[in-house]
Amino acid sequence: MIKFSEFLKLSKQIAASLLKDEKAKAFESSNLFSSKDKEDILNRLTDKTKIESRLQLKSKIDRKADWQTLKEKLNVPKKTYYWQYAAAASIVLILGLTFVFGTKETKSTTIEIANTPIKVGTDKAVLTLSDGSTVMLDSTNLYQKQGIKGTGKEIIYNVVGNKNVTLEYNILTIPRGGQFKIKLSDNTEVWLNSESQLKYPVNFIKGQPREVELIYGEAYFEVSKSTMHNGDAFTLKTSEQSLTVLGTSFNVKAYKDETEILTTLIEGSIAVTNNINQNILQPGEQSRLSQVKHDFEISTVDVFDVISWRNGAFSFTNKPLKDIMKVLSRWYDIDVLFVNQDMENVAFTGVLNKKQSIDYILEIIKNTNNMNYRIEDNKIIIE
Fold first, then answer.
1. N or C of the chain: less Cβ packing under 10 Å?
2. What share of the chain in percent tops pLDDT 90?
3. Distance CA 305, CA 90 (A)
4. pLDDT at 12
5. For the segment 182-203, what is each residue's pLDDT rounded down to a tens digit?
6. Ramachandran class of 96: left when φ > 0, alpha when ψ lies in -120 to 50, beta otherwise
7. Domains and CATH numbers, the chain
8. pLDDT band for position 18 (50/70/90)?
9. Which residues lie below 8 Å from residue 166, measured CB to CB, with a gap of 6+?
10. Among 285, 222, 210, 216, which Cα is nearest to 250's?
């Protein structure tokens, strides 16, 4: 019997691949399905005719009956409710379905797209040089200076000279509605989410810690190993904590309008401290640092949900709408008002493409949660 956790993990990997228009390598190498089954599943997922046919059949599906059939084939935890997982891209994609479920039944099968002026986020940033001057970075503003190159999607630093006596800092600011990547001079790669700011040296000094600061926002790090830099550790500071790593991948979320700093370890090992407590994280673990109580909570999380933003997707598992709207407001540079405050805690589960318009995203959420909303200028009003 196939374990449900394996089914869920594989399906989310397929979701990420399809959203990025890449080959589903994890699926191709999986031993959960035969070669014939794999071919059939991928065909159902990508064939436009079959997708259109499924959309027409959507309203005829008996979800509870189908879920019961699925449970008989999978080792699903007894306390798992069908709507908590059927909405995730996991089951949606493996079964070749094109709809997502929320906590309530869908009454409409049509997604009506309005024509609003709200734009999808893009690759853009503002670079502040050591002399205080600023440079706009985007697809129409490329930048090149000795040792620095901006491509429109990322900015790359290379080591210049061997006389690292003093540190010279740059700051990269990502506005609402933006994202950007940076490759530091030690080959560490950093993906910055909307409304984020990173301070870092143009070059690091040998024999000293490689220290950068996430002033605010969210960033995903793939740190160049210390063994490549004579043992020099990599340190990341935020407003309330510091991380020390030797070479690893992790995500830090430290927005100014949130009361917690979330640090999630993807690979390797990191030490998280706030000068009062210290915790060593293992892969798949997340620390929550309260900026009010100044204490840590450690838990195991779904890594895919945490870092999906870096891979071009929004992935939510039983996430309250108030939290989802914070994510959407940063990416689409919009304001959100809950007139009906009861809707703030309504949960939604699904994997969505960041390239979709805000109208399309909202209609999907509406169809799964019976959410009523309207758009006025640059504001979403949820009623």
1. N
2. 47
3. 12
4. 63
5. 999 999 999 999 999 999 999 9
6. left
7. 2-94 (no CATH), 122-301 (2.60.120.1440), 313-382 (3.55.50.30)
8. low
9. none
10. 222
